[in-house]
Automatic annotation (TrEMBL):
The keyword Metal-binding does not apply. InterPro entries: AA/rel_permease1, AA_Transporter_AGT. It holds the Pfam family AA_permease_2. It comes from the Bacteria. Its main location: membrane. This is APC family permease. The keyword Transmembrane helix applies. It is a multi-pass membrane protein. It is found in: Membrane. It comes from Streptomyces doudnae. The lineage of its organism: Bacteria, Bacillati, Actinomycetota, Actinomycetes, Kitasatosporales.
C-alpha cells in the first residue's frame, strides 16, 4: 500500500469513499447548511430590486419564488431520502441515465458552485463600500429598473482576497467546519430577525406602519405578469437555490434517533419556511421606508435605514458575514460533488483523493478541488468583467437547468423504488411532482429572457466542452495524458441508435436547444410568438423531453443495473458507553 511521508498509509479509493460516508451530521448541522446557503447575499439588495420592478407588491415575489423552489426541493428531498448519497447530484444521474447526462449535470453544478464563490466574495466587497473607499460602482443594468454593480480596480483585489479566504477556511477539519458554519448561520439569521423585530416594535401604532401594504400608483397594465417577471429577474430564485446543502451530504446524515430521512426533511423544509418568512418580513421593512439607495452609499438599504446606531453596525457586519457563510457552504459542497465525478472517472482521477492538510493530521479535505474551484471562480469573474448581475444571471440559469435533472432521475428510478417497498400511491404522487418540477423550471428559465439565458447556456456549453474535450486531448497528447486521467465518454454518441445513455444525452440536448430557441424568438420588441403561446409550446416540448429521457434512462438501467445506496434504518440512541466506544 502506498505511503506518504510521515502520514501513515494512504487509503485506497474505496476506503476514502467509505470514510467520507461514515461521518454523521446532526439536524443542527444540516439546518446550518440549508439556511447558510439560502440566507446569503440575496437579502442585501433583493428587496431594492424587487421593489423597483413591482412596487409594494414585491413581497409576493418572495412568496411565489419560495413556492416554486419548494416544489423543486420536494422532488430533490424525496430523491435524497430514497437514495441517500453524498455527491448525489452527480452520482445519481450517472446511475440512472449514464455518463453523458452525468457529465452535463457535472458541468453545470461545477460552474454554479464556483460562480457562487465569485458572487458571494463580490457581495462581501460591496459590504465594505463606503464613500471614502471606492471598491465598486453602481450603474444601469440591462433592465433600467435594476442597478448593476461592477468592480473597480481595488475591488478586484479585495474580491480575490475574499475568495482566497473562503477557500482557505474550507481546509479546516470538516467536523470543525460544520460547527463553525452552523454558528455563523445562527449569528446572521439572528441579526436579521433582531432588525425586523426592532423595526416593527418602533413602527407599531404609527400610521406610517401601514404604508408597506399600500399599492404603488406606478403599477399599470398587467401587475401579475410583472410580479412573475420580478420573481425571475430579482434575487428571489437566486436566494432560494442554496437549500440543496444538506442533500449534497445525504450520505453523511446521522441515523440514530429520528433517522436520516426525517433530519433531511426537517433541515430543508424548515430552512425554506424560516427563510421565506424572513425575506417577506425584510421586504415589508423596505416597503415601509424605501430609499433611493445605491451600492455606492452603503452595503445595503437596511444599513442606511438603521443609521449610525448599534443596529446599523450589526447589519453592516452581517452584510459581510452572510455572503461569506453562503460561500463556505457552496465551496465545501462542491468538493463532494467533484469527488463523486472523479470516482466515476469522468474527470481527473486524482481529484477523488482526500489529500493531507497542512495541520499534520489526516483530514478529509479535498484541497486540490478547492484550488481548481478557486481558479474557475476567478475565470468566471473575469469573463463577466466584474459584473454582479451577469454573475447572478449565469448562476441562476445554470441552477434552473441542473435542478431539473433530479426530476428525471427520480421518475426513472420509481419502478426500482417500488420493488424496495415504495408505495404505489407515493410513487404516483412523486411521479406527477417530478414532471411538474421539470416543466416549471423550464418555463421559469424561459422567463429569464434571452439577454440572461444565453450567458448561462454559453457557460454550460463551455463547461461541457472542457469535461468532454480534455479526455480526448489526453488521448491524442500522451504528455497531457500523463497529467490528466479521465474516461473518453463523448464517443458514446457514435452509438446513439443502440445506446440508451447516448439517447438520454440527446434528449437533454434537444430540450436545452428548444429552450434556447424559444427564448431567442421572444427577445425582440415584436416577438414571433406571444409569451403565453410560447410558454404553452415550451411546456409541451419539455414534457416530451422529460418522458423521452425517463424512458431511455430505464432502458439504460436494464442494461447496466444501477448501484443505489439504500436508506439506513433508524438506529436506537446510543448510551454513554456506546458513544465512548464510537469515539
Amino acid at each position: 500500500m502506498r505511503r506518504t511521508r510521515g502520514k501513515g498509509p494512504a487509503l485506497p479509493a474505496a476506503g476514502r469513499e467509505g470514510d467520507d460516508e461514515r461521518r454523521r451530521l446532526s439536524t443542527f448541522h444540516l439546518t446550518g447548511l440549508a439556511l447558510g446557503g439560502i440566507i446569503g447575499s440575496g437579502w442585501v439588495a433583493g428587496a431594492y430590486s424587487a421593489y423597483g420592478t413591482v412596487g409594494s407588491d414585491a413581497w409576493l415575489t418572495w412568496g411565489i419564488g419560495g413556492l416554486v423552489m419548494l416544489l423543486v426541493a420536494s422532488v430533490m428531498v424525496e430523491l435524497g431520502t430514497a437514495v441517500p448519497k453524498t455527491g448525489g447530484l452527480i452520482f445519481l444521474p450517472l446511475q440512472s441515465s449514464g455518463a453523458l447526462v452525468a457529465t452535463v449535470a457535472a458541468g453545470g453544478i461545477w460552474l454554479v458552485y464556483a460562480i457562487n464563490l465569485s458572487s458571494e466574495a463580490f457581495a462581501m466587497t460591496r459590504a465594505l463600500t463606503v464613500k471614502s473607499l471606492r471598491l465598486v460602482v453602481a450603474g444601469p443594468g440591462p433592465d433600467p429598473r435594476h442597478t448593476d454593480t461592477e468592480l473597480l480596480r481595488y475591488g478586484w483585489l479585495v474580491t480575490l482576497l475574499f475568495m482566497i479566504v473562503i477557500t482557505a477556511v474550507n481546509l479546516i477539519d470538516p467536523k470543525v467546519f460544520f460547527a463553525v458554519n452552523s454558528w455563523l448561520t445562527v449569528l446572521k439569521v439572528g441579526i436579521l430577525v433582531l432588525f425586523v423585530v426592532v423595526f416593527w416594535t418602533m413602527a407599531t401604532g404609527s400610521q406610517s406602519a401601514h404604508a408597506c401594504f399600500q399599492k404603488t400608483p406606478d403599477l399599470k397594465g398587467q401587475p401579475y405578469e410583472e410580479i412573475m417577471k420580478a420573481v425571475v429577474s430579482s434575487s428571489a430564485i437566486y436566494a432560494y437555490v442554496g437549500f440543496q446543502g444538506p442533500l449534497d451530504f445525504a450520505g453523511n446524515v446521522r441515523r440514530r434517533g429520528i433517522g436520516e430521512a426525517a433530519r433531511l426533511r426537517i433541515a430543508v423544509y424548515g430552512a425554506f419556511a424560516g427563510s421565506a418568512l424572513l425575506y417577506i418580513a425584510l421586504q415589508f421593512v423596505y416597503n415601509h421606508d424605501h430609499l433611493q439607495w445605491s451600492p455606492n452609499e452603503a452595503s445595503s438599504p437596511y444599513v442606511t435605514l438603521a443609521g449610525p446606531t448599534w443596529l446599523g453596525w450589526l447589519l453592516q457586519a452581517n452584510a459581510l458575514i452572510s455572503p461569506m457563510a453562503a460561500g463556505l457552504v457552496f465551496t465545501h459542497a462542491l468538493t463532494r460533488e467533484v469527488a463523486a465525478l472523479s470516482r466515476a472517472h469522468l474527470t481527473h482521477r486524482g481529484l477523488q483523493s482526500a489529500r493531507m492538510s497542512s495541520l499534520g493530521r489526516r483530514h478529509d479535505v479535498y484541497w486540490l478541488v478547492l484550488g481548481v474551484n478557486l481558479c474557475v471562480a476567478i475565470v468566471a469573474l473575469i469573463a463577466v468583467r466584474g459584473s454582479l448581475l451577469s454573475l447572478i444571471a449565469v448562476s441562476s440559469v445554470l441552477t434552473l437547468v441542473v435542478y431539473a435533472i433530479p426530476s428525471v432521475v427520480l421518475a426513472a428510478l420509481l419502478p426500482r423504488l417500488r420493488d424496495k417497498g415504495y408505495g404505489e400511491r407515493r410513487a404516483a404522487v412523486y411521479g406527477v411532482l417530478a414532471r411538474l418540477s421539470f416543466v416549471l423550471l423550464t418555463i421559469v428559465a424561459y422567463m429569464v429572457g434571452w439577454d440572461q439565458l444565453w450567458q448561462g447556456m454559453a457557460a454550460l456549453a463551455a463547461g461541457c466542452a472542457l469535461l468532454f474535450g480534455l479526455p480526448c486531448l489526453a488521448r491524442v497528447r500522451p504528455a497531457f495524458g500523463r497529467m490528466y486521467d479521465a474516461k473518453v465518454t463523448v464517443t458514446q454518441l457514435r452509438h446513439w441508435r443502440t445506446l440508451p445513455a447516448a439517447q438520454a444525452a440527446l434528449w437533454l440536448t434537444a430540450h436545452l436547444v428548444a429552450l434556447t430557441l424559444f427564448s431567442l424568438l421572444g427577445k425582440t420588441s415584436r416577438p414571433a410568438l406571444d409569451p403565453w403561446t410560447a410558454g404553452c409550446l415550451l411546456a409541451v416540448t419539455s414534457w416530451c423531453a422529460f418522458e423521452g429521457m425517463v424512458r431511455v434512462s430505464r432502458r439504460h438501467m436494464a442494461q447496466a443495473p444501477p448501484i443505489l445506496p439504500a436508506p439506513g434504518a433508524v438506529e436506537p440512541a446510543a448510551g454513554p458507553r456506546a458513544r465512548a466506544h464510537a469515539r
